[in-house]
Amino acid sequence: MKIIECPRDAMQGREVFIDTAIKAAYINQLLEVGFDTVDFGSFVSPKAVPQMRDTAEVLDLLDLFHSKSKLLAIVANVRGAQDALQFEEIDYLGFPLSISETFQQRNTNKSITEALEFVENLQNLCEVKGRTLVTYLSMGFGNPYEEPFSADIVAQFVGKLDERGVKVIALSDTIGVAEPTMIERIFTTNIEAFPHIEFGAHFHSRPEGIAEKVEASLRGGCKRFDGAIKGFGGCPMANDELVGNVATETLIDVLEKNHGDLGLNKEELGEAMKLANFVFQ
């Protein structure tokens, strides 16, 4: 069972810039907990995401010597990928591919066709550099644009990614609309059809909906989950201030209830939760 902690997703939408040293101190604390991976930053346009303009500087301040956690950074174009690949400390590069044409344009200024071409190029770059590409299939459980959506369409996109050699796909409930029945069906169908791909769940949710979404994913065979401490962050397009990231502490409770101890350092997790109150005040 893998937990990916996502301070990048929690921070990126904050209007007030979080000091570089504070970002690094928080991420260093997260690295002590024992998460499989920490999604720590992104190499994207500082005009588009000003909060992430210091990702390289944050990376330089991270203490990775005693941590078993891997690092993931989001990229949106070739320049960002090239910047990220300069750093050997980064294990995963993430890219958001959307089932929605509208959201793909808004999120990365690319059409779906262009985004798939970029995924292919990025996958090749990652293979050459010995890194792993994580493709986030955003709007993976529905979207607000009245565009066609079904579990079959999700499977078609997974098939396209499989053709390009992608080995990790995070199905993403971008606006918090996923229903447990649909979640279980989508994971079951794709995990059975593509057993060589590692599927993850990146949910945005109201707090009261987290447990049922995670449990539905588990029934579908998912073993990789994204979260952010206290549920900070989330997509503003959800039009509901209560829809944020899955709170990591809730995610841990649900997973341990179903699968036992996850081997995390709960004392360090408690310290991270205290620090989060300061970082996101």
TrEMBL record:
The keyword Lyase applies. Residues 1-270 form the Pyruvate carboxyltransferase domain. The keyword Lyase applies. InterPro entries: Aldolase_TIM (IPR013785), HMGL (IPR043594), PYR_CT (IPR000891). GO terms for molecular function: lyase activity. It comes from the Bacteria. Keywords: Lyase, Metal-binding. CDD domains: DRE_TIM_HMGL. Pfam families: HMGL-like. Belongs to the HMG-CoA lyase family. This is Hydroxymethylglutaryl-CoA lyase. It comes from Echinicola rosea. The lineage of its organism: Bacteria, Pseudomonadati, Bacteroidota, Cytophagia, Cytophagales. The gene is mvaB.
